[in-house]
Amino acid sequence: MKLPDPPDVRAALYRITRPAALRRGALTAYRSVAVVVAGALLLAGVVVGIGPRLWAIANAHSEVPVVLPDFQPLSQRTEVYDTAGNTIAVFERENSQPIAFQQIPEGVVESLLAVEDAEYFHHHGVNLRGFVRALLSNFASSAPTQGASTITQQVVKNEYLAGLPRDGRYKALQAHYALMLERKLSKQQILERYFNTVFFGNNAYGLAAAAEVYFGKKASDLTLLEGAFLMGLVRSPSGYDPIRYPEASRRRFKQVTLRLAALDLIPKDQATTLAETWPIPDRVRTLPSTNTKPTYYNLALKDFLLTRSDILGTTEQERANVLYRGGLRIYTTLDPVAQKSAENARNILPNTKVGFDAAVVSLDTASGAIRAMVGGRGLRSDVPGGEVNMALVPRQTGSSIKSFILAAAYQAG
Question: Which of 155, 282, 365, 381 is 20 to 30 A from 251, alpha carbon to alpha carbon?
Answer without folding.
Answer: 155
